[in-house]
Design goal:
The protein has 235 residues and is α/β, with parallel strands linked by helices. The chain is 34% helix and 27% strand. It has one domain: 3-Layer(aba) Sandwich (Rossmann fold). β9 and β10 form a beta hairpin. The longest helix is centred in the last third of the chain and has 16 residues.
């Protein structure tokens, strides 16, 4: 694994209107890693993902991807660098069927998964191809939302609460999918409230509180940090 970060976030600050949400966030994600942002509700995790994509009201600091600065770029230009966001609300279009939802985002770089490869990951989608996107179950909508960004050629995937509200069997499938994506060269930055799920897929963790990163440790250091995690997360 390369020591050079694929994504380097330095002193990242963000605002929604007058509300100052991020107060100097710092972390790295190296190629091929699954890195999880942990923290209580309101800690700034989702805002961090949105700030990386350039979809907050205002941001300052530095976000470099593959060594190139992205602060100052518009969100569409950031996406064309090879970064894709799968939002917590999934963003499935009710007026489109599964196939139309899947084919909607443009391919921004070569190397994305083909539709057949996506069906191999998520066989449920192939069976529901002509169904209205929002008529799918919550788990199937999550599969569609992840599958959609895999087509684009993005190599850094920002996944916001991918297991939210899903049944345990679907959560396991999402976990297997993330593990497989890692073997295929994708890098994942994950926001996740379900710590037990995160512990099955993550290489490293950053803990956020009040819009800042307050701690960091590797998966191999998990047992030694459990007491602190209980305090941080209230679990």
């Amino acid at each position: 694994m390369s020591a050079e970060p694929l994504l380097a976030v330095r002193n990242l600050q963000a605002w929604y209107g007058e509300s100052h949400v991020l107060h100097g966030v710092d972390f790295d994600v190296r190629p091929g890693e699954v890195v999880t942002l942990l923290g209580r509700n309101g800690a700034g995790k989702t805002t961090t993902l949105k700030s990386i994509m350039g979809i907050v009201g205002k941001r300052k600091g530095s976000v470099t991807f593959e060594g190139r600065e992205t602060v100052g770029l518009t969100s569409d230009k950031i996406a064309r660098q090879g970064i894709a966001l799968c939002p917590e609300e999934r963003g499935i279009f009710s007026s489109l069927d599964v196939k139309e939802n899947l084919l909607l985002p443009p391919q921004v770089k070569p190397g994305g998964l083909s539709v057949e490869q996506i069906f191999d990951l998520f066989p449920n989608l192939k069976e529901r191809l002509a169904s209205q996107g929002t008529k799918l179950s919550g788990g199937e909508q999550q599969m569609l939302a992840i599958g959609r960004i895999l087509r684009t050629g993005a190599r850094l995937l920002l996944l916001d609460e991918p297991t939210e509200g899903l049944a345990p069997v679907i959560i396991q499938q999402i976990g297997r999918t993330i593990a497989r994506l890692k073997t295929e060269g994708f890098t994942v930055l994950l926001v996740e409230q379900n710590f037990r799920f995160a512990s099955t897929v993550a290489d490293r963790y950053y803990v956020m509180e009040h819009g800042k990163v307050i701690d960091a440790f590797a998966n191999s250091e998990l047992a030694a940090n459990m007491d602190k995690l209980h305090d941080y997360l209230g679990v």
